[in-house]
């Protein structure tokens, strides 16, 4: 029955009933949406690039600041080490100076003691040479005893206590005390060693 109609009329009705405007409007809306999405995407990409550049600048600034802090810390540690070494050097020099002064003082004291001992020995010899008879012997014995006591007093002033053997009457032991170091040395005196040996040993101990 459709074929029985007039083709021209059929074409006219087809054209009249077939409208492309809604489809064109839909396509236009889709194109607008795509354009809007593309603009939004471009905007977000631009914002991300700006944020990345900003973070890159911040990273560079932080790296430079970190390098400055490391350099400043190294300089401070170097200065602290130099100060510590200077302090140690000063203390060492002061200790050496104190030891030198103490050595000079002890050397002077030892020289004075040696002079006094020599003077006592000379007095003992002179007393023994001029004395005569029993009275002279007693006087010489008194001088010798005084000389021994004075020697013991000198030794004691240096920190040396000499002990006498009760049976033989000889000095057999010496106790050397060093108050500055807090040391105590006990020395057995043997006749096979000279007086110079013991004097040198006592001096080194003191």
Quaternary structure of the protein: single chain
The radius of gyration is: 58 Å
Could you give a short account of the major beta sheet? 3 strands, antiparallel
Structural class comes to mainly alpha
Report the span from N to C terminus: 147 Å
The helicity comes to: over 70%
Strand content: 5-15%
Overall 3D form: rod-shaped
Order of helices and strands: HHHEEEH
Lateral arrangement of strands in the main beta sheet: 1-2-3
Low-confidence stretches: 125-141
How many separate helices?
4
The overall pLDDT, averaged over residues, is 75
Instruction: Count every beta strand, where a strand is a DSSP E run of 2 or more residues.
Output: 3
Explain briefly what this protein structure is.
The chain is mainly α and 206 residues long. Helix content is 76%, strand content 9%.
Blueprint (SSEs and pairs):
Elements: H1 7-17, H2 21-130, H3 133-157, E1 160-164, E2 171-178, E3 183-188, H4 195-205
Antiparallel strand pairs: 1-2, 2-3
Helix pairs in contact: 2-3
Family: Belongs to the SPC24 family.
InterPro entries: Ndc80_Spc24, Spc24_Fungi_globular_sf
Coiled coil: 45-72
